[in-house]
Amino acid sequence: MVTSEDCPFCEIVQRDGPDVRELYRDEHVVAFFPLEPATLGHTLVVPRKHIPDIWALDEDTAAHLGRAVVRLSQAVRTAVEPQGLNIIQSNGEVATQTIFHLHVHIVPRWEDDAIGRIWPPETRYSESEKDHAWERLREEIRKMPRR
Asked: Residues 47-81, buried b or exposed e (16+ Cβ, 10 A)?
């Protein structure tokens, strides 16, 4: 297991976090309540090895992480009976990542919870801007190896 000395999530993985409300642990991931949950039932899922962001994530670890998120989302649904659910994974400071150990938020949602909307009501991108981004992305995807 690769860890980072000053990573709070690596401390949790190593069972050094004194205030951790751990929910689940296996050989690949650990899940726990954050110290300041956005809603009741908010759960964080982290890989056991230190991976800073999605760009450093290997596909095998991604598969284990994804399976855990799906299973834990079902447990959240049964336990707290939300009206909806957000799965949030942020990368980089501009995207609100504050701890640089890859993590997935499972956030149960209710109509009048404190989070509110997470998407802008509208955007103002021109058709030309959208076409340019679409073409660049398609070009990069064509370069990817097929599996």
From this structure: bbbbbbbeeebeeebeeebeebbeebbeebeeeee
What average pLDDT does the segment 68-85 reach? 98
Determine how β-strand 29-33 pairs with β-strand 21-25. antiparallel
Among the listed residues 17, 14, 16, the one whose alpha carbon sits nearest the alpha carbon of residue 25: 14
Average pLDDT, the chain: 94
Report the distance separating Cα 97 and Cα 30, nearest Å. Answer: 18
Kindly give, in sequence order, each residue whose CB lies less than 8 Å from that of residue 35, ignoring residues fewer than 6 positions away: 19
Predicted structure pTM score: 0.90
CA-CA-CA-CA torsion for 131, 133, 136, 137, nearest 10 degrees? -110
Residues 38 and 29 sit within 8 Å (Cβ to Cβ): no
> pLDDT per residue over 24-53, tens digit each?
999 999 999 999 999 999 999 999 999 999
